[in-house]
Amino acid sequence: MPERRRPHIPAARKLDAVEAADPESGQRVPLFNPRNDDWRVHFAWSADKLRVIPLTATGRATEVRLLLNRPGAINIRRSLLALGETCPPLETLPESE
User: Beta strands of the chain (E only): which ranges?
Assistant: First the structure.
């Protein structure tokens, strides 16, 4: 029976994972949890608003594990920008509790 390939979409990449290796240090760190973590602590947008820039070990591990900067995601962001849509301004992101 051939091996099944996992889809290359963030939900399938995360599954039930709560931690992953930081590509910089190799240490296992928690993945970003939007219910508990402040996005602004772990990520920023590139100047062109197309790429998510990880700022912390958690950000780096999440970016790699969830493929946040995969070509398809960048293309969607580019298309949204061309339509005048932007990613949510950071001021509109909820504070972590």
Answer: 19-21, 28-30, 43-45, 52-54
As a whole-number percent, the residues of the chain with pLDDT over 90 amount to: 60
Q: What is the pLDDT of residue 86?
A: 74
Q: What is the 3-state secondary structure (H, E, C) of 14-40?
A: HCCCCEEECCCCCCEEECCCCCCCCHH
Task: Give the least confident one: 24-28, 43-47, 54-58, 91-95.
Answer: 91-95
* Whole-number Cα distances in Å, 74 to 43, 67, 87, 88: 16, 11, 12, 15
Cβ atoms of 54 and 43 closer than 8 Å: yes
pLDDT over threshold 50, residue 3: no
| Chain center to CA of 1 | 33
